[in-house]
Amino acid sequence: MKYKKNEAKEYSRENMKGIWAAALNPMTPDFSIDEAGLRRNIQHWIDDLKIRGFFIAGKQGEFFSMSLEERKRNFELAVEACDGKAGTIMSCSDQNFSTVVELAKHAQDVGADYIVVHAPVLHFINDRDDTLFNYYKEICDRVDIGIAMWSHPDSGYLMSPELCARIAELPNIMAIKYSVPRDMYKELTSLAGDRILVSTASEDEWFDNIVELNWQLYLCSSPPYLLQTANDTRMHEYTELAFAGEIDKARQVRDSLEPVRQALKSTRPGGKPQAHQKYWQQLLGQAGGPVREPLLQLTDDEKARTKAAFENCGLKLSNS
To answer: What topology does CATH give the domain 5-228?
Structure first.
């Protein structure tokens, strides 16, 4: 641990800045995790794209189709690949509370910087807020590592800003990935932005959130390594310009990425986000590969449409 439990909030505010991306897990043709490919991807993301940290073994990473040992190995690989050059936040989300705690302890033991835990699916509706407060408190009580909350509609509900602000009082709760409408995360920023780092996964809103809400952290999804190449780092560029107060220049760079955004969004089949993004990675020269069951693979027609849009989106792939 690089900090004590009661230093988690301060440490994260000093060190968790800029763009953090959610890693997809590349797979080999036999559906094993492509460990060498993941290492190469992470090195490219750090060295070429200047990404500051990585969300590991989350929904993008297909954690739901991985064994407990594979998830632990995923944590280890990411820590080794980052080697102190970028931060790590390990997804310990699971419906089984004991599994959440076991993964949290493993993340702490192998040198992860932080963990993130998704709000669970609940099978009752009474006393929900008190139950969720107790859920995060129990995790906090059992580990020292900094913990980020994560609220998303796929839990079947959204945690209110007031509940999140209450949970933010716990000593090692230091951030939230708040996948909610903008008025909700604006309210939480006002209520608890001095105690936790508030973020959302939408790249479309990142620039506005720097400028209007004074956010320091993009946490986190796949656009940072899908919208950029070694020779075209416009997301990094507009982020740094916005942080430096050069708002007009930042907005121009942000807006120039719109054809790339639309190429990515317009070709993505609704039920195949991981498969589509892995194929886009391959077009970029990154390791991708298939998705695991029960996820659906792209069809040949879907690949053809994606490739055509990719080739005409305006990303700069080389120095020529």
So the answer is: TIM Barrel (3.20.20)
